[in-house]
Write a structure and sequence with these properties.
Blueprint: E1 5-9, H1 14-25, E2 29-34, E3 49-53, H2 59-66, E4 71-74, H3 92-111, E5 116-120, H4 132-145, E6 151-157, E7 160-161, H5 168-177, E8 181-183, E9 189-190, E10 193-194, H6 195-206, E11 214-218, E12 224-225, H7 226-237, E13 243-245, H8 248-259, H9 269-274, H10 300-304, H11 308-321
Parallel strand pairs: 1-2, 1-4, 2-3, 4-5, 5-6, 6-11, 7-10, 8-13
Antiparallel strand pairs: 9-12
Helix pairs in contact: 1-6, 2-3, 3-4, 5-7
Bound molecules: NADP nicotinamide-adenine-dinucleotide phosphate (NAP).
Length: 322
């Protein structure tokens, strides 16, 4: 019997690594194109996974990547644009990753006979949203929904937590090294969702026709303010610090300075713009096919206390042996 062949773009990152591990354990054949092989090396341990270095914006490369695939899952995304690359309605980095790429992938799927596309967007994606991130995510969704001949599902998660997240771990690290936590948009609200629940939703959607042409919100069971999340990350990691809410002007100045530091900024002005609207589910109802979400306090204290790294390594080892 032919195994279902799935291409996962953006598969080398945080969500992708969890998704590939799950789908590999379920017997799918997976192809993960990446811009930099070393970033995706950990996936090579998994059964049925092929990783290739490729430019997914190149039509010829896409033709060969999608050639014999049945499904495409697109996780590609950027959280920040560089300080000098802001723009209206969004800058060139958001344009490339969040709008141009989904449009290109949707058209390429139809051209190469890949009829199923699962696309990762974000909660709060909105053409009139306050941030470049939310507006560009909405444009990517629209490009996919407008593509004729495609069975698509769009997922919109709130902020995602899990052992190797860049969110609670970041707040825990900062509190380890600094005596106080100055925080912009401290009262912004989130409904964090567990990465295991996110990737499970993708895996379930592969076999459920009722998920086609649906936009699926993925949220956790509880709503927290940013201040509460930072406080919990401090407590669970063993370094609770006083949190000082910053006025908007000072938060923007702080974000501007962080944008100019080398590497991924901890916070950008666009992140602050995103937080002008609450990042919570639009209705209290979840689709019948989606299992109940996992509570944060059942997972996060464990990995923030330092035990999580060993556990996630063990998980990869276990799935590569199965
Ligand atoms: N993490 C969250 O809390 C969260 C919340 C809501 C929505 N999301 C969405 O979920 C998706 C996955 O997030 P994540 O946290 O796993 O992100 P991540 O760890 O940063 O991974 C992002 C992936 O996107 C790829 N990528 C980024 N820019 C690219 C570009 N210009 N060209 C080609 N590939 C590019 C990277 O691939 P290579 O570097 O290997 O090429 C990487 O595998 C994103 O779309 C994100 O917007 C995440």
């Amino acid at each position: 019997m032919t195994r279902t062949r799935i291409v996962v773009t953006g598969g080398s990152g945080f969500v992708g690594s969890h998704l590939i591990a799950l789908l590999a354990s379920q017997g799918f054949e997976l192809l993960v194109p990446t811009r930099r092989l070393p970033r995706a090396r950990h996936l090579l341990l998994l059964p049925g996974v092929t990783v290739i270095e490729a430019d997914i914006f190149d039509r010829a490369a896409l033709a060969s990547i999608l050639g014999d695939a049945h499904v495409l899952i697109n996780l590609t995304g950027v959280l920040h644009s560089s300080a000098g690359k802001r723009g209206s309605p969004w800058g060139p980095q958001f344009e490339r990753a969040h709008h141009a790429l989904p449009a290109l992938l949707a058209a390429a799927c139809v051209e190469h006979g890949v009829s199923r596309l699962l696309h990762m967007s974000a909660l709060g994606a909105d053409a009139k949203g306050p941030s470049m991130y939310s507006r560009s995510k909405a444009a990517g969704e629209a490009a996919i929904r407008q593509q004729a001949g495609l069975s698509w599902t769009v997922f919109r998660p709130s902020v995602i937590f899990g052992p190797d997240d860049n969110f609670l771990n970041q707040f825990a690290r900062l509190q380890k090294h600094f005596p106080v936590m100055p925080l912009g948009c401290a009262e912004a609200r989130f409904q964090p969702v567990y990465v295991g629940d996110v990737v499970n939703a993708f895996a379930l959607a592969l076999g459920l026709p009722q998920t086609m042409a649906q936009v699926v919100e993925l949220v956790g069971p509880e709503v927290f303010s940013l201040r509460e999340l930072v406080r919990l990350a401090g407590i669970w990691s063993g370094h609770p610090r006083p949190i000082i809410g910053l006025p908007n002007w000072l938060a923007r100045l702080q974000a501007l300075m962080l944008e100019f530091l080398p590497g991924e900024p901890l916070m950008s002005r666009d992140n602050l713009d995103s937080m002008k609207v609450d990042n919570v589910g639009s209705s209290g109802q979840r689709p019948a096919w989606l299992p109940a979400p996992t509570a944060m306090d059942g997972i996060a204290p464990y990995y923030l206390s330092g035990a999580g790294r060993a556990a996630s390594y063990e998980r990869y080892r276990a799935s590569s042996r199965s």
